[in-house]
Amino acid sequence: MSNHRRSMNPDERSRRGAAEGVTRRTLLQTLALTGGALSVGGISAGALAGKGGGKGPPPRYPLRIPPVVSPAGLSLHEGPTVTDLANGDEPMTMVWGYNSQFPAPTIVANRGDLASIHLTNGLQQETITHWHGMIVPHDADGHPRQAVPPGGSYQYNFAIDQRACLNWYHPHPHMHTGEQVFMGLAGAFVIRDAEEAALGLPSGSYELPLIIRDVTLDARGNFKFSTKSSGFFGQTPLVNGTLSPFVEVDRAVYRLRVLNGCNARVMWLALDSGAPFTLIGTDGGLLPVAVPMQQITIGPAERLDLIVDFRALAEGSTVMLRDVGSGWDLLEFRGTGQAGGGSVPTGPLSSITPLPAPVRERYFSFEGMTRINGQRYDLNRIDFQVPLGECELWRFETNGNGPHPVHVHGAYFQVVGRQGGRGRLYPWEAGWKDTVLVGDGETVEVLIRFDEFRGLYLIHCHQLAHEDAGMMANFEVV
Ligand code: C2O
Ligand code: CU
Ligand code: CU
């Protein structure tokens, strides 16, 4: 056992003695604490541990950073694997991974690159992978009609020709997206371009991908899925597949590339210091200007590009990234005291041309947990057609069971209005978006234009239980 020990953080060493690694038993104790705490009236794990006789805070584990791969000649295999949620070297939790990784490898590409990706299905059920946010020909979009059986494979070839941004990839088979994403199949897909490079944003170890999601673990520490149509809400957060993570940070400016990878949970992100962070981008890349913020709402599948200034963080001091909604501590930043520098962008970042006046309007009512405009998804039905190159106004309205994170394949949109409910737009809804939260009683208006490809695409709710139950529609760009 001793030769399988992970490098522990100083807290753990002093608490348990250097001879004892993080064993399966300690992990299970942590899980019991977190699960137990949350099932008892929502008391946080930290609070419970604090009451537990002066043992100090629960152990925290080093944040996992997924390996980086190129999309050129990439093979991706979906299949069962094991992982260590404490990010050490003793895998003990069964998950489904891409190439045995949880989260999946981070695909990084430059604008202009060609992707050729070979997907193989090692699951016991059909699957297909969708590149969320990538504007690709319909035969590379991972439509559920393209799902392949166990043992099957699919070849994707597409050119990457869009702005720098953080996208992601995940399965998209009919009726099993929620289960497959929950079981661990999701990864980041980062696009870089010259406009972004010219800004000199924090990079290398100063740029962190953060895939935040929730999970429920059973007594053995394995993932426990529930197919409730009201959606999956887990008891414990994971960041990059790491339980109670920490990451060491220099006295430097950091760039956080945040994805809400939850099946259903909306999060309200804030730093426990109350310090502002700077929002520089959303789903489809950079905003025109940076916006200082203290709290940001992020729904399932939405992305945020955040700048956080740790230049004043002393050695040993900590700052916690929290979800104010659940009261969860998500990620602890620990100061190393080492100078790293960098600066917070203040000038213009990018230019975004507003879409022109729409030539027509469409209306989408997201009803209950299963329908759009009265209909459940039918794989073989084309629900509507959209002419290529014409700007349209799409109106999304909830009729119960919101919020619905509404997502469109094949084009980005601009959010231009919200009536009812919150009744306003927020800075994190600016820029190019592919997913927008529509709350109960709200009507959200977006401008959208399909400029690139004709063919079959999807609109759906990204609350994955809703999507799987039929809150999805096929449309054809003609
Ligand atoms: Cu992230 Cu249609 O999906
Ligand atoms: Cu998508
Ligand atoms: Cu929904």
General description of the model:
- The structure is a single chain.
- The chain has about 475 residues and is mainly β.
- Helix content is about 10%, strand content about 40%.
- The protein contains 6 helices and 31 strands.
- Strands 1, 11, 12, 13, 14, 15, 16, 17, 18, 19, 20 and 21 form a 12-stranded mixed β-sheet that branches.
- The longest helix has 16 residues, at about 25-40.
- It is globular and about 60 Å long.
- The termini are far apart.
- Residues about 1-25 and about 30-55 have low confidence and may be disordered.
- The site of CU-O-CU linkage has 10 residues, from strand 7 and strand 30.
List the helices and strands and how they pair.
Elements lengths: L9 H7 L7 H16 L5 H7 L9 E2 L5 E2 L2 E12 L9 E6 L7 E5 L3 E8 L7 E4 L20 E7 L5 E7 L5 H6 L4 E6 L1 H4 L9 E9 L20 E4 L2 E2 L1 E16 L6 E5 L5 E6 L2 E9 L2 E3 L4 E7 L8 E6 L4 E14 L18 E8 L3 E2 L11 E3 L5 E8 L4 E5 L4 E7 L15 E4 L4 E6 L6 E7 L2 H6 L2 E6 L1
Parallel strand pairs: 1-14, 2-5, 3-6, 5-10, 11-14, 14-21, 22-25, 24-31
Antiparallel strand pairs: 3-4, 6-8, 7-9, 9-10, 11-12, 12-13, 14-19, 15-18, 15-20, 16-17, 16-19, 20-21, 22-23, 25-29, 26-28, 26-30, 27-29, 30-31
Helix pairs in contact: 2-3
One copper (II) ion binds next to loops.
